[in-house]
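General statements about sequence and structure are easier to judge against a single worked case. Part of our work consisted of pairing the sequence of a single chain with a tokenised description of its backbone. The amino acid sequence and the backbone structure tokens for this protein are reproduced below.

***
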Amino acid sequence: MKNFFFILALCCLGSIGAIAQSTTKIVTGAVIDKNGNPLPGAIVEATGGAESTVVDADGTFSIEVPIWLKSLTARYAGMKSKKKNLNGRDMIFLLRPDTDSWFINLETSVNADVYRIGVMGGYLGKWGGYAKLLPTGGCYIGGVPALTLGVIKHIKSPVYSYLGLGYAPVGGIDSYPYSEDWDYEHGAMFEAGLIFNIKKKINISTGYSFSSSFCCYDNHEFHFGVGYCF
């Protein structure tokens, strides 16, 4: 009888060990950049979990995670973190440079009769957005500012394109400039341009805008700006 209970206990312990072992799994893989170079020191962690590991010098890793875990996340300084679903036991993480940043530019726009000086600020990413405020100068009266809002699209580092729509006072004159006959009307502004993000710190923008009152006046302006990314 004692032998029977001893054998039963061994069977139970073996079953418990098998169950415990089946609750985890080993996942291996590598973390590389877009050129296929390894990224030693990168962190691979269980998404939403406590498990993590450091990538070896050759770019490979091995991590033990719960069997129910759905995804892993890889992180590396200066790179965008990447999350991947666990479809198997071997995973390759390809990380790309983190080009996302906020920026603020000192902006100016000019044509033959008008100048504006103001600010442009926004977010640079795969897709981003911006706002531009340009107080009125030159021949315009009333000090009414131009305001545009738009989207930014990353083309290829370090180049971004932007497209915006907004409000602008639109002016014109029938006789000699700066005379009492100068007037302006409320109008819409359409603008497009490029942003150059240099070494993730310096921002240079250039563009063109067309504004119209849809009645009497149209204005064409060239834009230029420089600023800082943070």
Summary: Residues 1-20, 174-179 have pLDDT under 50 and may be disordered. The CA atoms of residues 197 and 203 lie 5 Å apart. The helical segments are 2-21. The chain is about 10% helix and 55% strand.
